[in-house]
Amino acid sequence: MLASIVGGWPARKGEFPWQVAILEDGKYHSCGGVLIDNCWVLTAAHCFEQYPNKTYSIVVGDLSKRVEEGTEQEFEILVVHVHENYTEEVTDSNDYDIALLRLRKKNGRCAQLTDHVRTACLPTSANQFPDGYKCVISGWGNTNTDDFSPNTLMKARVPLLPHADCSRRYRNKMTPRMLCAGYLQTGGVDTCNGDSGGPLVCERDGRWTVWGITSFGFGCASPGFPGIYSRVVNFLPWINNIIGEIVHLP
């Protein structure tokens, strides 16, 4: 039940400058992520279940997977921090599905912030965005259930849904560390295979906040089964603790 954008449309160049592409073996799109600091990427833990047996890198500032636009910045990953509670016992439920990636510096620095590379803000309050608030999902994942993966970054707008409604649909699989978003009755717009780890961002007063990290779902855009996201605000102490401890890394 991995998560891509179904029912979306192409993003514009530089529209989502915090969007990260995670590559396997330096060339195969694996997952998404979100830049929250010039040296740190937030993503989903399940994207790194094969680590360190597989090699991963990240790209920021990208729009098309097939066209080199001159705005891309690629980095090796220095450290992968999967949440310590994401264990074999919880992988079936996708609880604690969150990870932090520390980028390896190039020429003494991490990502250089430009018009096409920016960080998304972290949440400031658990009640910052209420149910019904429309937020944006993005990624290079499948645009339908036939495994068609687009070359261009895609986007879609989805409303936040009540936790209880989604918990009933997913038979109590949801935990307080998850949120859901989408169109409960009609479906048609959702993340799908390949978007895992990417951001659900909400905008207010020109400030874009990463409210969720794409985690899982049942099918893609199926009626009655909206997308499930790790609720970032619940992980703020963990995020701040990890970043605060690792500031001395090269």
TrEMBL record:
GO terms for molecular function: serine-type endopeptidase activity. Signal peptide: none annotated. Keywords: Disulfide bond, Hydrolase, Protease, Serine protease. The keyword Protease applies. The keyword Protease applies. PROSITE patterns: TRYPSIN_DOM, TRYPSIN_HIS, TRYPSIN_SER. GO terms for biological process: proteolysis. Residues 5-244 form the Peptidase S1 domain. It comes from the Eukaryota. PANTHER family: PEPTIDASE S1 DOMAIN-CONTAINING PROTEIN, TRYPSIN-RELATED. This is Peptidase S1 domain-containing protein. The lineage of its organism: Eukaryota, Metazoa, Chordata, Cephalochordata, Leptocardii.
